[in-house]
Design a protein that fits this description.
It contains 8 helices and 22 strands. The strands form 5 sheets. An 8-stranded mixed β-sheet has the order 6-7-5-15-16-17-14-18, with helices on both faces. Strands 9-2-1-13-20-19 form a 6-stranded mixed β-sheet, with helices on one face. Strands 3-8-4 form a 3-stranded antiparallel β-sheet. 49% of the residues are buried. Bound molecules: flavin-adenine dinucleotide.
Length: 377
Amino acid sequence: MRVVVIGSGIVGTSVAYECAKAGAKVVLLEAGRIAGGTSTVSFAWTNATGKRPRAYFALNVAGMRAHLELKRDFPDAPWFFQSGGFEWRTTPAGIAAFEEDVRQISEWGYGVEWVDRETVARMEPDVTATGEGPIAYFAEEGWVDPALYSAWLIRAATSRWGAEVFTGARVVAVETQNGRVVGVRTADGTQIAADHVVNCTGGLSGLELGDAPALPLASTVGVLAFTPPVALTLRSHVHADDLDMRPDGAGRIMIHKVSVDDTLSEPQTLATDGPEATALLEAARAVLTGLEMVPIEAIRSTVRPIPADGLTCAGEMPGISGYSVAVTHSGATIAPQLGKVVADEVVRGRTHAEMESFRPSRFFATGNSGTPRRAVA
Ligand SMILES: Cc1cc2nc3c(=O)[nH]c(=O)nc-3n(C[C@H](O)[C@H](O)[C@H](O)COP(=O)(O)OP(=O)(O)OC[C@H]3O[C@@H](n4cnc5c(N)ncnc54)[C@H](O)[C@@H]3O)c2cc1C
């Protein structure tokens, strides 16, 4: 079976790797550079906290497990850090909502415990647990380096199973005959035959590709700031209200804050001394006391791909036989599981019943011919 995967972010490389491993002849087509889209501007925290409904929570947990399973294929897995993380809130409303989330996910079997401030100080001496609310510790959580993840999976897919990878190959059309996929066409006119095409274009899946309809998206913008290398011993990821921080290699600290994301309506080039960087640094300094003399070295913004109802969209498109999509927020967490699901369904012919609520069909009304019409969401 010939499978063409469009897009080489963390989702596309997972799909390409698992499909090649399952025995498909895989061609991965990337418009730019490998993992050069959202995946390399991601906080990339592997977690299922706050994820609802239950099916979406379970999909995120499956993603966390799938990261661990990948270590069987790659014992070193130099992209994966199951470091554990601390999280707390400082406002009464935030504390109440957080306690309820922890109660719920704990009942669902998630690894979480309440810890005191002495424990935080002992495990992470650089961290000040602000406020007086309770602090949760999530031992099973961690983060990934998506570029390294993609690099290693692509290397394995090409060297072990003969997958082919083309960069600078922008797909402009998915081509069909009689309602069945026959291949794709790239911007330079090259046609590549396929029995199945999987669209993993993230935030660009909201564009029509020839016979393939656009997915309805409700994408938002995300901003990340990075310090230069700093002499801190932080190993865990830390979350205080809407602030997220974690190590990013060589002593750099990655900083994210939802309220800063919310100030932008589209990705743009930001200044390292601009208002976004200043807001991120000030918030980070309140929690990581060693950042007093430290500036922001880089700040990036990008699109966060989110299907219109906020949930993952994965599976075959109604009305186009042989065409699937795999698009999600929380892709850093879910990607390895999505790769397995797509490979099972497309290559091995095994349907995943737990994916029923994530199918693209929920967005489309189909015409009499079975062709997908307008998105309904
Ligand atoms: C600030 C921020 C923080 C985040 N934090 C987390 C987090 O903590 N945990 C988590 O799990 N998730 C997080 N996410 C979400 C996560 O990063 C994304 O869900 C994930 O990176 C999406 O990966 P992707 O492979 O679908 O998309 P991308 O990485 O964007 O990859 C899509 C690729 O497709 C290519 N492409 C597009 N169109 C074409 C075409 N026509 N032809 C060929 N190639 C094409 C692009 O060039 C790109 O390389 C965060 C996102 C942001 C922005």
